[in-house]
Amino acid sequence: MDNIMSLVDNTPDAVSRRIALRVKSRRLELNLTQEGMATRAGIKLPTYRQFERTGRISLKGLLHIAFVLDAMDDFDALFVKKQYVSLDELVSSNEKVRKRGKKNE
Question: How far apart are the C-alpha atoms of 35 and 47, rounded to whole Å?
């Protein structure tokens, strides 16, 4: 049952709503109004309100919010395959970097 629940909790809609809740919580910690956050992020107030309510926002809008909240490093780390400890480890890895995807056959 826990596996089924974790699948439901990790849908794009569920994750985006949790992100919106964390942003709202951080905004309140900083004693900012929705209008103040939207202004600082350079996005329209209705867009920001919709984000807090539904979790829906463009990636660019979310990045602007992350910039205001000093959370850009979190985005920069997304989709990083492997963190190398040293330059030697990086050089010794013989991973080929794919230039394009494989055709579906």
Answer: 10
Return the biggest CA–CA distance within the chain.
55
Q: What pLDDT is recorded for position 19?
A: 96
Q: Which of 70, 61, 59 lies closest to 30 in space, CA to CA?
A: 70
Radius of gyration of the chain (CA): 19
Question: 27 Cβ partners below 8 Å, 6+ apart?
Answer: 34, 37, 69
Phi/psi of residue 94, each to 5°? -105, 30
Token pair belonging to 48:
């920001």
3-state secondary structure of 85: coil
What are the tens digits of pLDDT across the range 35-88? 999 999 999 999 999 999 999 999 999 999 999 999 999 888 888 776 666 767
Spell out the residues 6+ positions from residue 77 whose beta carbon is closer than 8 angstroms to its own: none
Supply the pLDDT for residue 76. Answer: 84
